[in-house]
Amino acid sequence: MRIFSGLRVILFGVLCAAATLVARAGETVYLVARAGETVYHSDVVVLGSGAAGLSAAVAAAETGAKVMVLEKMPVVGGSSVFAADYVTAIGKRAEAVAGKELSVESLYKEIVRSGGGRNDPELIEKLLLMTDDAYEWLTSMGASLARPVPVREGGEWAGFRTDTKGTTVGVEVVKALLRSAEDRRIPIETLAPASEILMEKGAVAGVRVTDMRGGTFIIRSPAVVIATGSYAANPDMVRMHAGKESRQYTALNFTTNAPGCTGDGLILGHMAGAAVRDLELLEFHPTTIATTGDIIPSSVRSRGAILVNQQGKRFVNELDKRRAVVAETEKQPGHVAWLIADEKIVEQESLLQESSYQLAAVTGATEEELARRMRVDPETFKETLRTYREGLLKGKDAFGRRTMESDLSAVPLYAFPVRSAVHGTSGGLVADEHAHVQNEEGKPIPGLYAAGDVMSGLNGLERVSGMGIAAAVVFGREAGYCASRFARPDLPVPESRRMIPSGYTLRLDPRCRPDEP
Ligand SMILES: Cc1cc2nc3c(=O)[nH]c(=O)nc-3n(C[C@H](O)[C@H](O)[C@H](O)COP(=O)(O)OP(=O)(O)OC[C@H]3O[C@@H](n4cnc5c(N)ncnc54)[C@H](O)[C@@H]3O)c2cc1C
Predict the structure, then answer these.
(1) CA distances from residue 169 to 81, 130, 346, 435 in whole angstroms, order as listed
(2) Is residue 497 over pLDDT 90?
(3) From ligand 1's centre to the CA of 282, what distance in Å?
(4) d(CA 40, CA 161)
């Protein structure tokens, strides 16, 4: 233990006094500022600049509160900018855009089924009641999200993509939020990782930030929103928590997440007294390009693409839960597979037209040519396609797959080399439906909020596609709003808070459990 000398204690006192000087008049600062540490002030500080953090910041600013965003990486957006599939929304506005009736009950059941019942019903209900409002909020900021796309087999809800060419849903959402943050003059500090949440008498008092040169500064704030994403890009944490089933997966060596997603917020929150749960719940994605790590969205499989192994044989219902597809892929030779698509699918999925995907793909003008380029036996491959088409005519194939939009006959044919990767972490900080972080006793920690991938309880075993961005925006907004109400109860309730949610009266049975685990 280091013992302070008398001189150090005096110096320490002087530094505390200096910190008090920069505080607002009449405020007592108990924070211990270190030598040379500047103290700034904000009503709300947001950690992380993905969809959750930016939503929190904009929502807090909408109330009139002073808000600041800290981002540890040199660029903003986190994993949110990688979202290339779709964003789910359910409600009257989404119905109008999708042009069909949607069933909130069926989506609720799918979330619980996919999560193996390990979801918190209150969080799901909050999410489902608010996605429509979040959808409206994003589009009112200029996000173009008007193109409905197919969701997993038989789903009676809707996924939306952007109409804007050359961009993805994640980029579109982050860009809209950034524009709104800019309009509201919200400072966003990059290369500014939060390294400590400062507490005073059991309540949040601010954050300490470490800059890239190792220097530190303090932001004094009564409310902090943790929106630091998952810990999927922290291989040590991932290995430490991987469950029995996934511990041997080669997929543990790869991730689809942004490099900043290393679990910082989880540790910072826990050190500040937050409860943490379900850290063993890792999510995997079965189709990332083996050479580049780029993700091939699930909609490519929904449109008709199939997986074959290095012998040219199918081995799984490609539309089964991601974890089931990953488990089967891990059993194949080399733990890799080929994702087979045709020209029709590539035309519908603009991402696959990008050069990094095209360069990774093997193509063939005929089935035989493609097989030879994949180095699989042409006869086996042709037989695989023939059986697949037979299933398509019957409406159900040998693996139980029912949706086969394409018969894989539009040439050229494509084979993308794919492997599985860690796609997310379902565990994290425990927070209630108002994004208020709880301590081990289940009591809210005054001033501490969490949203997005750092929050636990929503997804359980596996997140339903399209729910990542929706959850980040819904709970980010809630966190930002509640944090600002906590910090500045004197401010009036903003108009945006008075928007009417989904239009549904959701009377779901909280005991609703999946038909199958
Ligand atoms: C490849 C990929 C594709 C996906 N596709 C879809 C999709 O199509 N549809 C969908 O709905 N969902 C999709 N998801 C999931 C979705 O992107 C996430 O659920 C969502 O983006 C999470 O947002 P977030 O704000 O919580 O985290 P992030 O967007 O990851 O943001 C977290 C930010 O916090 C920063 N940070 C970390 N530590 C600190 C610190 N100490 N101080 C300050 N900042 C810090 C990180 O650098 C990062 O920028 C996809 C995810 C991936 C990885």
Answers:
(1) 8, 19, 18, 24
(2) no
(3) 15
(4) 40
Identify the residue whose C-alpha is closest to ligand 1 atom 18: 468
Of 22-36, 313-327, 360-374, the poorest mean pLDDT is in 22-36
Rounded to the nearest 10 degrees, what angle do helices 104-114 and 121-140 cross at?
120
Q: What values do phi and psi take at 465, rounded to 5?
A: -50, 140
- The residues lining ligand 1, judged by C-beta closer than 6 Å to any ligand atom, are 47-53, 70-73, 78-80, 82-87, 169-170, 193-194, 227-229, 256-258, 260-261, 264-265, 295, 452-453, 466-470, 472
Residue 440: exposure state from Cβ atoms within 10 A (0-12, 13-18, ≥19): exposed
Catalytic residue among 303, 322, 477, 485: 322
pLDDT in tens, 172-198: 999 999 999 999 999 999 999 999 999
Give the atom of ligand 1 at the shortest distance from the alpha carbon of 288.
1
Q: Ligand 1 centre and the CA of 186: distance in Å?
A: 20
Q: Whose CA is nearest to atom 35 of ligand 1?
A: 48
Instruction: Give the global pTM.
Output: 0.89
- The pLDDT of residue 154 is 63
pLDDT computed for residue 7 by the predictor: 32
Task: Collect all residues with Cβ–Cβ distance below 8 Å to 455 and sequence separation of at least 6.
Answer: 428, 429, 431, 435, 471, 475
> In whole angstroms, how large is the CA radius of gyration of the chain?
24
**Inter-CA distances, 132 with 206, 466, 473, Å:** 33, 13, 11
Q: 9 pLDDT exceeds 80?
A: no
Ligand 1 mutation target, pool 254, 256, 288, 469, most atoms within 8 A of CB? 469
Least Cα distance to 38 among 215, 197, 222, 199 occurs for 215
Active site (annotated) includes residue 303: no
Q: Where are the alpha helices (DSSP H) in 115-168?
A: 121-140
